[in-house]
Amino acid sequence: MQGRDSVGLVHECLREHRPATVERWSATEESAVAARRTERVLAWKGPDPVRVDAAHVTLRPDSLTARGTSAVADYAVDWVLDTGAAWVTRRLSVRVRGDGFVRSLEVRRDAGGTWSAVRSQDGQPAASLDVTGLHGALDCDLGLCPFTNTMPVLRHDLVARARRGEAHGVELVMAWVAVPDLTLQVSPQRYTSLGPAPDGGARIGFVSGDFETTIEFDRDGLVRDYPGLASRLPEAPPSGSSSTISG
């Protein structure tokens, strides 16, 4: 995606994601769909470093919000993520607290596709980080976090493509955040739909540099198993009769 007009690409992705019948919906019908949301509470276990990750996720028809935590032996992470249309990152806020240090990072992408990143540590004045190379990037990617693989999978409908047997690959540029340092790097990545997984899920190939693996996602596009990074823990049964909440 690097080098393409990001606003035009968002519009293109929206057209690809939405069925043609959307144009014929009444304003009332479209408003009703937009008001629906699905909430999930997820937890993963990671092997290296040994940790537990958790996230509360609100999925909407073409956007999401999420907040999460990660706990390891010598530091803890908490984060908040907000996207706009087509699941394009608007804001990622991250804080790391360890023995003798506190760091925070605020990453933003505005409506025109311009990225910014501000980092602070231990009460020192905040400093802007270099965002060169992120023109055309649509997503953030938080290191060691199994959640931030979700946005490109949803945008490019990779779960449905995988379940139909389509080998569809997409090249991406991500704003990758290292943990626990909270530095920012440009990260070229590739996602490829490979095939179905149990319970409506999908297997999706992932490549970044010399690293390559196959990630299993559930029907909502959320990571179920990421070899070497995280495996989903069993979810608690829903408290209501439906996972879809109006309002």
Count the beta strands.
16
The ordered string of helix (H) and strand (E) elements is: HHEEEEEEEEEHHEEEEEEE
Shape: globular
The tally of structural domains comes to 1
**What is the number of helices?**
4
Helical amount:
10-25%
| Uncertain residue ranges | 1-11, 13-34, 241-247
- Class computed from helices, strands and strand pairing: mainly beta
Task: Give the termini distance in whole angstroms.
Answer: 35 Å
Average pLDDT rating: 86
Main sheet? 16 strands, mixed
Rg, nearest Å: 18 Å
What amount of the residues lies in strands? Answer: over 45%
Topology:
Elements lengths: L5 H12 L9 H9 E12 L2 E10 L4 E8 L3 E9 L5 E10 L2 E9 L5 E7 L5 E2 L10 E4 L7 H6 L2 H6 L5 E9 L6 E14 L3 E8 L2 E7 L5 E4 L3 E3 L11 E3 L1
Parallel strand pairs: 9-10
Antiparallel strand pairs: 1-2, 1-15, 1-16, 2-3, 3-4, 4-5, 5-6, 6-7, 7-8, 10-11, 11-12, 12-13, 13-14, 14-15
